[in-house]
Precorrin-6y C5,15-methyltransferase (Decarboxylating), CbiE subunit
Amino acid sequence: MITVVGVGPGNPKLLTSYALKKIKEAKVLVGGQRLLEQFDTRAKKIPYDRNFDLKSIDKLGDGVVILASGDPLLYGIANTLLKNFGKEKIEIIPGISCVQYMASKLKVSLNDAKIVSFHGRKGKLEEILNYKKIFIFTDKVNTPQKIAKDLRKASCTDYVIFVGENLSYENEKICRFTLKELAEYEYEFGINLVLLLGE
Ligand SMILES: C[S@@+](CC[C@H](N)C(=O)[O-])C[C@H]1O[C@@H](n2cnc3c(N)ncnc32)[C@H](O)[C@@H]1O
């Protein structure tokens, strides 16, 4: 059995007690460096980086726990594992998504929210144009500034945009911008989540 544990947006206080139990029991922990560093356990730690072959994971034996940021099924590694290994071999422990976290901070309902990911893929504006409340996962290429610029180019200017940076960490910042302000903002954000709100 391969266990995938959602560790929440990052701050250990947002980890569920069941997730922590699973992590403590693990013989091998696989995850991104940011997540592996958080846990002081005896488990062997294997960084999930470019050299790691996900398909080889079932050869690591029993007691393998894969750490996933936020919730493993929301644009997370659990989706890939399910495709590769099937439902019977995978156990999924949910976590608090950074989307839930930011919505709670801003006191914004999730009932009518659209969630898309531009992380590691070409962001398609047409995915979002029919919605008034859109959370967007970003990355180093699809930055908040790029999203703001692309929206302006497409003449979609009826949005305010929030950027949640380093959510749940001590250096967390959630800032509100107009698209023009953000498009012209010269700053390199840390890990971040974008929320577009239609006016
Ligand atoms: C591949 S997605 C995984 C999302 C995750 N499964 C979840 O439910 O939150 C990774 C993206 O989530 C966002 N993210 C994850 N943790 C974050 C944090 N602590 N602060 C801001 N954004 C975060 C970033 O946009 C990052 O590029």
